Amino acid sequence: MQASTQDAVTRDYLGPIFRGFLTTFSNRGESLTAYWDREFPWQTIDQTTLDAGKPLLVFGVADIDTGRRVMVGFPRLPNDWYSRWRCEQTANGMQWTLSDKDHEPYSLSSLQLSGTQPNVRLTRAVRMSSSFPFGFEPTRIAAEVPEPNNGSDDHIHFLDGGMVDNTGVDSVLAILSKIEATNTSNCQQLAEELRRRGVFLIEIDAGAGSGEVATSGLLSRLTQPFGGYNRGVYTAAKRSRDRSVAELYTQFGEDFTTEPIESHPASDEVTEVMTTLALPEHDVRRLIASFENPKREKIIREALRKRYMELSDRDSLSQRKQ
């Protein structure tokens, strides 16, 4: 297991990107996607091949035509959860249009082309969710506006979901809220089970932050405006994230915990989370050690055990009252 982990994190992921950049009529994103298909057993996994009884995997993607989050679920989310379009009264009657009133995430499953929902492979979803601006070309999916409409979209374009929010908490809130609000036996049963077990929200690496900005020198005229814009976007995303967490806490009350779970002792000199595509050898050793350190494992296990006991005690008390 350790050897396979080392192989995975030391693998050269930058090579396919540069090959895509240098190869005529190719691009970095497609080159990297083809590489993932070759190196990992993902090429046969799409949104219809995963067992619906297994944990839901959701990729966050940004719709650059609307600025909204798109949820790409494995398996698919229901096709009537959060549509891209809104049916509104227009001068030509009721029509499906893009509305500036909609800001919440929508499901990729709500899109259709000739009556068929998109079915993306796992590697394609990874590509869609990690295509950061200027580094990769946008991905696109053919879709059509539901009838009646005043025109069809040939393609919808997507970039890195971090353009909207790098935490994905808004997608968690949207999915859990929909489960709570949907009056079907399956959703009600799932909602009850969520409340019985409680909710753990584990947020790992919410982004690199707004960074430092040069305030003097020749480059300051260029870096200050871009730096200020970057800080504003980052702050807005963090504020949106805080509001989503507050809403989750309001919905679930005691079923939702905000206890911090430290993944490393305070004595460790860890100032950043490594998210580079290819890691130097010393960073690889540090990354692996972070998962194997007995002290860290003990801290996480103790925090989880404590919360589990609290939830178990609450369930026992509720049953005794009944």
TrEMBL record:
Transmembrane segments: none
Lineage start: Bacteria, Pseudomonadati, Planctomycetota, Planctomycetia, Pirellulales
Keyword Lipid metabolism on entry: yes
Coiled coil location: none
Keywords assigned: Lipid metabolism
SUPFAM superfamilies on file: FabD/lysophospholipase-like
Keyword Lipid metabolism: yes
Family annotation (InterPro entries): Acyl_Trfase/lysoPLipase, PNPLA_dom
Organism from which the protein derives: Rhodopirellula maiorica SM1
Domain PNPLA stretches: 116-172
Alphabetical GO biological process terms: lipid metabolic process
Pfam families found in the cross-reference section: Patatin
UniProt-recorded name of the protein: PNPLA domain-containing protein
